[in-house]
Design brief:
The chain has about 110 residues and is an alpha+beta fold. The protein has one domain: Beta-lactamase Inhibitory Protein, Chain:B, domain 1. The protein contains two helices and five strands. The two termini are about 25 Å apart.
Amino acid sequence: MKSTWKNLAVVLLAALAAAACATVGKDFDRTHVNDIKPKVHDKAQITAWFGAPTRVTTSTGGASGCNEMWIYQYGRSTHGGARTTAAALAVLFDRDGKVCESSYSEQK
């Protein structure tokens, strides 16, 4: 799953580099990225820390038991991609709304 999020960050950066000046997603507070704990934090805590996600996806969960993914993404590029800032956070939840796993990627 983590390699998928690295791919998300690469796609986000490529999209920004193609534009002269562009913003993708909504900037989010990254203060608590390293505080996210599986089986401890829930959707309410994640919302309090990061706000509403950019995108939500659901699945059957498979062997991992995770069935919902919240994605936070933000990117800004200026001067034809010469200066790019991008951040992507994915938080996966189980059926009880508890964090299963999370992944964060940042480019400055």
